[in-house]
Structure formats: C-alpha cells, structure tokens
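Need tokens for this chain, all 247 residues.
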Amino acid sequence: MEGIAGQVAVVVGAGAGIGRATSALLAARGMTVACLDRDERSARETAEAIGSSASAHGADVTDADSVRAAFQAVADAYGQVHAVVNCAGVQGPTGAPSHLVDLDAFDQAYAVNLRGALVVSQVAVSHMLPHRYGRIVHVASIAGKEGNPNMIGYSATKAGMIGMVKAQGKEYARDGITVNALAPAVIDTGFLTKLPDEVVRYMLDRIPMGRAGTVDDAARLIAWVVSPECGFTTGFTFDLSGGRATY
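Here are the structure tokens for all 247 residues:
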C-alpha cells in the first residue's frame, strides 16, 4: 500500500474491537497512531501493545472540548493529522419496539453515534483544511442502511451518520479531504455479547456468507480507505456485510 508509511492517524474508539485492530494494522503499515478513547486506560493498553509508534489520549465524543484537546495534543506532537478513523459507538436501546423505547437511552445513542461523529468530523476537518489533505472514515452499520427491528436508536443514528458522510463528502471534495463510511453487518467483537440472542440470530441469518465479520476484515478495508490510494472516492459507504447489502 503506497503512501501510508510516515503518516499520522487518529483512531477514535481505539480501546477495543475495530478501533484496536485498526490501530494495530495502521501502525504495522508504517503510520504513527494516536489512540483515542473515552476509557483512557484501554487506549493506553492499545498504544502499549503497538509500541513507540503509538500514543494514548482520553477523549469522549460527547464532550467536544475533550476531542479538540486530544487532537491538538496529537498535532503538537506529530504535526499534520493525515487520517481519522471514528469507531466510537454505542448500541442504544434494544429488545423493544419503537413505541416502548426509553427516550433517555435513545438520546445517549444519538449523542455518541451521530452528534459525536459530527464532533469528530468537525475537529478533523479543522486540522486537515490547512494542509488540503485528509482521510476521514466513520464506522456506521448495515442497520443504518436497512434498519434492524427493535434497535431504533442504533439504526436511526447510524443512518444519520451515513447521511452526514454523504453531505460532508460533497462539502470537502475540492479540499483534498475525503469522508467515507463503513457499513458492517455483524462483527465478532464484545459488542455482540451485549445483544439479545434473537437480535444476533436475525442479523446472522441475513448474511449470505453465513458468518460474522472479524475486526481484521474491518481493519484491512479501513487501512485502504484512509490511504492515499483511495483518492477518488468520497461520500461513500463501503459494504462490509458478507453480501447482505450490495448497494
């Protein structure tokens, strides 16, 4: 993969799952990686496992000031921020139809999944515009394309994220900044264990490959999307669903 070595990436939600796997792969391919997470200890664990090419920072996407401070620390330490990967997300309320959903739980899903994604994009773009270069990737979900029943908070906020990416891709298309998303189906992470069995069965039954994806599947695709090689695609949501969604 050409051009990625020597660049600086910020991975938000680097403490576990897709974020941790992506941080490790980007570092293995020559990037300096800043690992951000609301749980700074888990971010530090990721960075320590990577070694000297990684650093750890606490940042909560529901707190814009903390995100700004973390990005500024990265910029002060390394200079230019070339790539940003946003893996922060919560499942929100599950197991109940929409008319029974707790609105406070829905608001929390919105605060992290959609408003938090906007915060990450705003801060990332502010660092990338002066250099007229950048790659931003948000991890959305197949639920944002198709909607999963009894997961209204997750489905709606990930759909909003996809819409945001489409808009931002157009906004910054002439500024050298691409903004894209991934739409994973079921990924085998600790996230799965928090879902009701019937929800997991619903999702797995709709994957033609007959298996859940892995965090490495996601990391490999993200690594290409944030590279200079992926220069003519923006505002797009990449399928990562084992064939469930092909549009």
